[in-house]
Amino acid sequence: MVTGHVFIATSLDGFIARSDGGLDWLLSRDDPGEDHGYDAFLKGMDGIVMGRGSFEAVRALGVPWPYPKPVVVLSRSLAPEALPPDLRGHVEVTPEPPRPLCERLARQGWRRVYVDGGAVIRSFLAEGLIADMVLTRIPVLIGQGLPLFGSLPADLPLRHDTTHAYPSGLVQSRYLLDPPA
Ligand SMILES: NC(=O)c1ccc[n+]([C@@H]2O[C@H](COP(=O)([O-])OP(=O)(O)OC[C@H]3O[C@@H](n4cnc5c(N)ncnc54)[C@H](OP(=O)(O)O)[C@@H]3O)[C@@H](O)[C@H]2O)c1
Fold first, then answer.
1. Which of 1, 53, 56, 64 qualifies as a FRET site for 145, CA 20 to 30 Å off?
2. Cα→Cα distances 138→23, 66, 88, 160, 169, Å
3. Residue owning the nearest CA to atom 1 of ligand 1
C-alpha cells in the first residue's frame, strides 16, 4: 500500500495560507541556500497528490511548473481536458477518493506519496493514510487563514521523531503516525 507523507509550513497559529490564499508571511521568510530538507524529502517520493486549491495556488504564482515528479490533482470540479497543454503528461486530475486512489497508485508501483493541501491532508489523515508529517513552523501569528488541521473522526496520537530549530527562527518537527489497527 502507498504511504502518505506531509511536508508543509504553517504560521505559529496553525495556518497554511491567509484566507485569500496569501503566502507573503511564508515567502518573506525564504532563506536563500537553505531548503529545510525539501529536496531530500521530495527525492524520497514517487509522486505528489495535491488538492485543487494547492494546484491553483501554484499555477497562480506564474512560475515554471516546480515539480520534478508526477502530480495527481484531486478535484471533483476540474475537467481533466482543462489542463494546460504544458502540464499534460506531468499532471493528472482525478475525482477519486483518497483510499481508492492510493490503491490504484500502489498498483502502478508507487510506494511513497507527498500529500499536499490543507483539505486533502485532512482527508488523508481521517482515512489513516498518512505515515509521517514534517511541519515547519514560521514564527508569526497571522490570526486567521486556511487551517492545516480540523475535525477528525477520532483522536490521532502522534509520535515525535525530531525537531530542528533553524537560525532563521523556523522550527521543524517530524511526527510519525501509526497505521490504523
Ligand atoms: N504553507 C504551505 O506550506 C502550503 C502548502 C500547500 C498549500 N498551501 C496553500 O494552501 C491553500 C490550499 O489548501 P486548501 O486546504 O485550501 O486546499 P487543497 O487541499 O489544496 O484543495 C482542496 C480541494 O481539493 C478538492 N478535493 C478533491 N477530493 C478531495 C478530498 N478527498 N479531500 C479534500 N479535498 C478534495 C476539492 O476541490 P473540488 O471542488 O475541485 O473537488 C477541494 O476544494 C493554497 O492557498 C496554497 O497556497 C500552503
1. 64
2. 12, 22, 34, 18, 7
3. 16
Q: What is the rounded distance in angstroms from the CA atom of residue 50 to the CA atom of residue 37?
A: 19
Name the grid cell of 30: 525564504
Q: Is the pLDDT of residue 178 over 80?
A: yes
- Name which residue sits closest to atom 24 of ligand 1, judged by CA: 51
Report pLDDT digits (tens) over 66-96: 999 999 999 999 998 889 999 999 999 999 9
Return the CA Rg of the chain.
Answer: 16
Residues with CB under 6 A from ligand 1: 8-9, 16-17, 21, 23, 26, 50-54, 57, 74-78, 97-98, 116-120, 123, 146
Rounded to whole angstroms, the Cα distance separating 65 from 145 reads 25
Ramachandran sector of residue 36 (left: φ over 0; alpha: ψ -120 to 50; beta: rest) = left
